[in-house]
Design a protein that fits this description.
The structure holds 2 protein chains of 2 kinds. Chain A is mostly helical. Chain A has one domain. Helices cover 71% and strands 2% of the residues of chain A. Chain A has a two-stranded antiparallel ribbon with strand order 1-2. In chain A, helix 1 packs antiparallel against helix 7, helix 2 runs antiparallel to helix 3 and helix 7 packs antiparallel against helix 8. The longest helix of chain A is centred in the C-terminal third of the chain and has 28 residues. The model of chain A has no long low-confidence stretch (mean pLDDT 95). By secondary structure, chain B is mostly loops. The mean pLDDT of chain B is 70. The chains are: A mainly alpha, B little secondary structure. Chains A and B meet through helix 1 and helix 3 of A and loops of B.
């Protein structure tokens, strides 16, 4: 555990809490892509199956349970409790364009051809692109509420901080995982455009509105 | 012999 890794994890938890609180307080999930949230739930489900097979630390197990429970809660709030506020029409990204390539890639490029390892690899690949339906929704409506922007910024920062963690671990512990690094780089690149808008607009108190 | 792939991250 190093400072980048811890900061990354905290940013990740923070992002999820922001989102849950926003939905709960406003009693609405307007502007949030349910498809991205379902994909994230799938990411955690396929990655944290090892909760039952391998014990790393109390910290790891607790965080895994937090991610599983909070993503489950988010999906429940969006598709059951506050279903009426879910903006179907703007959430039109075709998820099969993400799921099919991730399944194929995880079958082809993995560390070991076992069920657990392929599922882990699938979750890593899927996580890197799971935000696309949300970014697509923002680009379609041309704007995002500031709370949604804070959520996206925290969620994007998490993987960027993990990149620093991997650089640190490579030099200090000689530990590296090419699949995670490759997917992490892709994931962070997808947020770059958003980071730019967030820093130039949202932090200056303006709404995040895309140029027409 | 191949070492098992370590997954200590989230």
């Amino acid at each position: 555990m190093n400072v980048f890794r811890l900061a990354g994890d905290l940013a990740h938890v923070f992002a999820i809490i922001i989102l849950l609180l926003k939905i709960w307080k406003t009693r609405s999930c307007a502007g949030i892509s349910g498809k991205s949230q379902v994909l994230f739930a799938l990411v955690y489900l396929t990655r944290y199956l090892d909760l039952f097979t391998t014990y790393v630390s109390l910290y790891n197990s607790v965080m895994k349970v937090i991610f599983l429970a909070s993503s489950g809660a988010t999906v429940y709030l969006m598709y059951v409790k506050f279903k009426a506020t879910y903006d179907h029409n703007h959430d039109s990204f075709r998820v099969e364009f993400l799921l099919v390539p991730c399944v194929l890639l995880s079958l082809l490029i993995n560390h070991d051809f076992t069920v657990m390892e392929v599922l882990w690899t699938f979750s890593i690949y899927l996580e890197s692109v799971a935000i696309l339906p949300q970014l697509f929704m923002v680009s379609k409506t041309g704007e995002a509420e500031s709370i949604t922007s804070h959520y996206l910024f925290a969620l994007g920062s998490y993987r960027a901080l993990y990149l620093l963690n991997w650089i640190y671990r490579y030099f200090v512990e000689s530990h590296y995982d090419l699949i995670a690094i490759f997917a992490g780089v892709v994931q962070t690149i997808l947020y770059c455009d958003f980071f730019y808008l967030y820093i130039t607009k949202v932090l200056k108190g303006k709404r995040l509105q895309l140029p027409a | 012999c191949k070492e098992p792939h370590i997954k200590d991250e989230l």
